Amino acid sequence: MIGNDHLRRDYTYRYTACDGTTTADWTYTYTIDLTTALVPPTNGTATVECLSAATDPGAPATIKDACGRDVVPTLVGFVDDPATITCEGTRVYTYRYTACDGTTTADWTYTYTIDLTTALVPPTNGTATVECLSAATDPGAPATIKDACGRDVVPTLVGFVDDPATITCEGTRVYTYRYTACDGTTTADWTYTYTIDLTTALVPPTNGTATVECLSAATDPGAPATIKDACGRDVVPTLVGFVDDPATITCEGTRVYTYRYTACDGTTTADWTYTYTIDLTTALVPPTNGTATENV
């Protein structure tokens, strides 16, 4: 028979004497003890980028115990590592098979690896052209973007790089803002490039003139005043030389001195001139006229 605890089965054979009343029993007892381990299916795995995708994978297949009985799994729950996943980690779902004895169990797990792999996409880089380095100021942070899971990623200023390293006139200044994803390693840079280009013309003082009678008086007038470029830098003139017209002045003509202002870029220039007009105006003074009287 099967006991109330379902753990044994006793077979009984009875010996009966010829008097029909004297008996003796022989028993054979089976102890039913489920000892073979349950064999669940192979555990499952998946890699996803977002925790929201680490959903219940659903129950694995029903299995059989050693006696061919169906064993249906039930969901135990899931465990996250770290306990609160804000970016990357693992989420492990566990389904448990429990044999009919109530104590023999086997677990099946499905492990999600949450791994952020999609590149961040920053806004289009910015550019501007300015004349003065002082105008190449921090453009300010670009817009906040979203990562692959819809989380906000806010840029932070890395700094700027000048080319040449010390800009005294023209060059580029590049500001960099960096987006860093929640994993701390996935980054994307946004840049704003200023091109410093001096384009405003130099404005020299009014040209000078003078009229002299003698070429020897047409001397170097000296440098005109220092001027400022568009960025307030001093521009000092240098003597180019002079040009005579006619090329060889033997009496009258012009002599033009030129001083040149050259901006820091080495190519933007402006000339200041001083023109002497050599004009002989003083009357000639002959000697006193002579006289003589002759006797006839």
Structure write-up:
There is one protein chain. With 296 residues, the protein is an all-beta fold. The protein is built from no helices and 20 strands. The protein has a four-stranded mixed beta sheet, with no helix packed on it. Strands 9-14-13-12 form a four-stranded mixed beta sheet, with no helix packed on it. The N and C termini lie far apart (199 Å). The N terminus is likely disordered.
| E-strand count | 20
Low-confidence spans: pLDDT under 50, at least 5 residues?
Answer: 1-5
* Mean pLDDT over the full residue set: 95
Structural class: mainly beta
Describe the main β-sheet briefly: 4 strands, mixed
Distance separating the two termini: 199 Å
Spatial order of the strands in the main sheet?
3-8-7-6
Figure out the total of helices. 0
User: What does the radius of gyration come to?
Assistant: 52 Å
Concise description?
With 296 residues, the protein is mostly beta strands.
What brief labels describe this structure?
mainly beta; single chain; 296 residues; four-stranded mixed beta sheet; disordered N terminus; 20 strands
Indicate the topology.
Elements: E1 8-16, E2 23-31, E3 44-48, E4 63-64, E5 70-71, E6 74-81, E7 89-98, E8 105-114, E9 126-130, E10 145-146, E11 152-153, E12 156-163, E13 171-180, E14 187-196, E15 208-212, E16 227-228, E17 234-235, E18 238-245, E19 253-262, E20 269-278
Parallel strand pairs: 3-8, 9-14, 15-20
Antiparallel strand pairs: 1-2, 4-5, 6-7, 7-8, 10-11, 12-13, 13-14, 16-17, 18-19, 19-20
